[in-house]
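Appendix C: a fully annotated inverse folding record. The material below is reproduced so that readers can follow the format used throughout the book. The structure is listed first as tokens, followed by the designed sequence.
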């Protein structure tokens, strides 16, 4: 498996999805509690199939590491942390000979799902730092959510870790508040 920095959007998406499987995001329910759920996550992202229960604990530690990086987006810290995620898995190279910077990392044969996730998360973080900047590492804007994400959208205005879930909840809450404020004056007149 080889991941090019040009594919940082996909890799950053995997990092975002990984950190948002944590129990703190889902109010106590871990979305990667066992080997079966990890296998489903791996299949969804075309990663090697996990084979040992110990891989679940390793992925949980990786998830915490990636979350820590997203929560504290200092450029030097992000580069050091992401490089550490990728360095033992293959060679990270930055080719600038063509006048255009291009990172590429190769995963060693027989690598585990943990190795593949480390590589993807590291490459995603490095790609976003290089291409979009550290302002793209954010906490979810939904009031009750503890999720985090890496914004790879073109305009860079993403607000929610899971727009279809968190964004929808905020929109529904705002709609209900507007409806309640409209109907409240009518009740007072009667």
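Designed amino acids, in order:
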């Amino acid at each position: 498996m080889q991941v090019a920095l040009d594919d940082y959007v996909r890799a950053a998406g995997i990092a975002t999805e990984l950190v948002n499987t944590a129990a703190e995001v889902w109010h106590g329910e871990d979305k990667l509690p066992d080997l079966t759920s990890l296998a489903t996550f791996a299949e969804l992202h075309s990663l090697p199939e996990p084979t040992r229960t110990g891989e679940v604990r390793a992925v949980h530690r990786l998830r915490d590491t990636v979350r820590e990086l997203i929560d504290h987006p200092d450029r030097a810290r992000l580069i050091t942390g992401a490089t550490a995620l990728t360095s033992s898995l293959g060679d990270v190279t930055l080719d600038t000979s063509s006048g255009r910077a291009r990172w590429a990392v190769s995963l060693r044969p027989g690598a585990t799902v943990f190795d593949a996730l480390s590589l993807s998360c590291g490459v995603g973080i490095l790609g976003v730092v290089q291409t979009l900047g550290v302002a793209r590492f954010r906490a979810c804007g939904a009031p009750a959510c503890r999720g985090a994400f890496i914004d790879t959208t073109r305009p860079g205005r993403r607000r929610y870790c899971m727009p279809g879930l968190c964004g929808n909840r905020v929109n529904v809450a705002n709609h209900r508040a507007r409806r309640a404020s409209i109907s409240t004056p009518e009740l007072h007149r009667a």
